[in-house]
């Protein structure tokens, strides 16, 4: 059976399971015979990636031998952190498609020259986020990032507050910046992204389903009619 490995570059097994559940549910909704999705959690680093140093450690952890060995057995791989840490090195080691939730969701938001913003919880990653958008070639239509207030890790522990503050960030992207699509920037924000997608008239893009769509295309599996 075809299977996808979803790598969580932070150390939270709860986040891994949440992202795996989102991926499984999405794939089951669009494919008659969806691939199996399994998760892998890195063994060192931070429980949530909130700054540049966390990204550096995550990139190393994603490429540790035990993770690479699991990835080599999969038919496709998702790197489940918004900065896509370690993805290029991982691709160089593997012969299967590897996508990241960051690049996948940004490409989807920017499709057709659409103006888009990013709403997330990690202001210390503002430079990294903007840099990655520009590297992908979408700087001209990027309206900027809007960040929630408060400690990102603590906020993640209160889902209702997380959703409320992210909703305000999404609204700022739309009303103040002129975005016509908004990416929710982070794997741990996956459940909030699903809820927010139902609250706005423009696309609010969850990073895990976006990565699933990109990987389906890369694996040439095709979606069910």
How far the N terminus sits from the C terminus, by CA atoms, comes to: 21 Å
Number of helices: 10
Q: Mind describing the biggest β-sheet?
A: 4 strands, parallel
Helix-strand category:
alpha/beta
Number of DSSP-assigned strands: 8
Q: Quick one: overall form? A: globular
Query: Uncertain segments of ≥5 residues (pLDDT<50)?
Result: none
How much is the radius of gyration in Å? Answer: 16 Å
Strand content: 15-25%
DSSP helix fraction: 40-55%
| Helix/strand order | EHEHHEHEHEHEHHEHEH
- Strand line-up across the major sheet: 2-1-3-4
The average pLDDT score comes to 96
Organism: Pandoraea fibrosis
Protein name: Aspartate/glutamate racemase family protein
InterPro entries: Asp/Glu/hydantoin_racemase, Hydantoin_racemase-like, Iso_Racemase_Enz_sf
Family: Belongs to the HyuE racemase family.
Tell me what the structure shows.
By secondary structure, the protein is of the alpha/beta class. Helix content is 47%, strand content 16%. It is built from ten helices and eight strands. The strands form two sheets. The protein has a four-stranded parallel beta sheet, sandwiched between helices. Strands 6-5-7-8 form a four-stranded parallel beta sheet, sandwiched between helices. The longest helix is centred in the N-terminal third of the chain and has 18 residues. The protein starts with a strand and ends in a 6-residue tail after the last helix. The model has no long low-confidence stretch (mean pLDDT 96).
């Amino acid at each position: 059976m075809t299977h996808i490995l979803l790598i969580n570059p932070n150390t939270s097994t709860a986040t891994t399971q949440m992202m795996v559940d989102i991926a499984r549910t999405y794939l089951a909704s669009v494919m008659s015979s969806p691939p199996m999705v399994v998760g892998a959690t890195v063994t060192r680093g931070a429980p949530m990636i909130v700054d540049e140093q966390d990204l550096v450690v995550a990139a190393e952890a994603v490429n540790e031998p035990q993770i690479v060995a699991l990835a080599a057995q999969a038919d496709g791989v998702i790197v489940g952190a918004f900065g896509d840490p370690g993805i290029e090195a991982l691709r160089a080691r593997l012969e299967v498609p590897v996508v990241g939730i960051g690049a996948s969701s940004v490409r989807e938001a920017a499709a057709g020259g659409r103006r888009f913003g990013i709403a997330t919880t990690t202001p210390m990653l503002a430079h990294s986020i903007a840099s990655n958008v520009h590297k992908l070639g979408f700087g001209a239509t990027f309206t900027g990032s809007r960040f929630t207030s408060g400690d990102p890790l603590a906020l993640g522990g209160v889902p209702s507050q997380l959703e409320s503050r992210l909703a305000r960030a999404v609204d700022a992207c739309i009303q103040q910046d002129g975005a016509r699509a908004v990416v929710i920037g982070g794997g741990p924000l996956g459940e909030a992204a699903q809820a927010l997608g139902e609250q706005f008239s423009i696309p609010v893009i969850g990073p895990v389903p976006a990565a699933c769509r990109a990987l389906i295309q890369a694996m040439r599996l095709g979606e069910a009619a």
